[in-house]
Fold:
Amino acid sequence: MAKPKTAKQMERHLKGMANHHRIEILLYIARNDGATLDDIVTTLGANEKTLGEHTRRLSVAGLVNKKYRGKFVEHTLSPYGKTFVGFLKSFQHTQYNNTLTNWSL
Structure:
């Protein structure tokens, strides 16, 4: 069984996705495995340098893998990236309920 992650290790991954552009990029890559930066820029409609920096940060955080294909870079989700996308999709459809009985800490 895998050793539980420390708070510092979890922080690295959480900070890696703590931006609306990064969340959009993760969700896009989940739907479009092997997407290039051009694909991401075209779909999300933001500045190429901005999105390039965000994909770099996602890679540094261990959420996105990069594969170099000539002048293009293909982006895929890492296993941690897939876990976070699952969380994001679940969280996206969760409604807040103001009772503590729904939370077991």
About this structure: The radius of gyration is 15 Å. The helical segments are 7-16, 20-31, 37-44, 48-60, 79-92.
